[in-house]
Automatic annotation (TrEMBL):
Gene3D superfamilies: Periplasmic binding protein-like II. Residues 21-251 form the Solute-binding protein family 3/N-terminal domain. CDD domains: PBP2_Ehub_like (cd01002). This is Ectoine/hydroxyectoine ABC transporter substrate-binding protein EhuB. InterPro entries: Ectoine_EhuB, Solute-binding_3/MltF_N. Keywords: Signal. It comes from the Bacteria.
Length: 265
């Protein structure tokens, strides 16, 4: 596919090098991409972008905050150059943008009472033990539980992982499901609960893994490919984990998945 400049693969990387700055679309989501209390751009995606773009010859990054739902339209209308928001790579989005390979994968885990008295390790256990189950508003975990055989009407829906922790501590539910990252972080403040080992939910009979990456306009394959080369080096050296660790990411979130696999290709 050719750009307006007529050059296959796009000329954005050349233009960014000439300008010395890349505009990053972010959605104000902790820990993915946000402006901190000092007014500084941070989060796992912007911090990784700073390192990768410096290696590509672009010294500065500039945040362009928007709503999450406006990230792909904003990219298409050139409000920013790259989406740096930890966006999950899925077939619907792959039809609109091109993705870098994922810089992290996301598994699920449960918040349970200390000692995990019901022995809950996955959604099948929740169903088998008839455990009282909670998860967050709009979370993918609702569907994962239903797929395992849990009645949707029996799920306690709470606003977020903090409310989920409170529900487990108060004994209103036996288990709260969320991403391994968010559950692991929130239980650090709790003496009465623990987090289970991260696991892959079963979707369509197969273990399912989400992965997040950077989105580019479909014409900008040269930039995406150059980004992937540097990302692969950071994965191999272990530097990627060092960049992401301050935001709660662990070895569990490191992945060798490709964008092609997550796009369903």
């Amino acid at each position: 596919m050719a750009t307006a400049s007529g050059e296959d693969g796009g000329d954005l990387l050349d233009r960014l090098r000439a300008q010395g700055v890349v505009r990053l679309g972010i959605a104000g989501e902790i820990p993915f991409g946000y402006i901190d209390k000092d007014g500084e751009l941070t989060g796992e995606a912007p911090e990784l972008a700073k390192v990768v773009f410096k290696r590509l010859g672009v010294d500065r990054v500039q945040p362009v905050p928007t709503e999450f739902g406006s990230l792909i339209p904003g990219l298409a209308s050139q409000q920013f150059d790259v989406v740096a928001a930890g966006m999950y790579i899925n077939p619907d989005r792959c039809a609109q943008v091109i993705f870098s390979d994922p810089d992290y994968q996301m598994l699920d885990s449960f918040i349970v009472r200390k000692g995990n008295p019901l022995g809950l390790r996955n959604y099948a256990d929740v169903v088998a033990k008839k455990a009282r189950f909670a998860t967050g508003t709009g979370y993918a975990e609702i569907q994962y539980a239903v797929e395992a055989g849990y009645a949707e009407g029996d799920i306690l829906i709470v606003p977020d992982q903090v409310a989920g922790l409170n529900a487990v501590e108060a004994g209103r539910v036996d288990v709260f499901a969320g991403t391994a990252l968010t559950t692991r972080e929130v239980v650090k403040k709790s003496a009465r609960t623990e987090v289970t080992e991260a696991f892959k939910p079963i979707v369509g009979g197969k273990p399912h893994v989400d992965g997040g990456g950077f989105a580019f306009r479909p014409t900008e394959t040269r930039l995406r490919d150059a980004f992937n080369v540097e990302l692969a080096k950071l994965k191999k050296s272990g530097e990627l984990l060092r960049i992401l660790a301050p935001f709660g990411f662990s070895e569990d979130e490191m992945t060798d998945l490709t964008a092609k696999e997550l796009c369903g290709g």
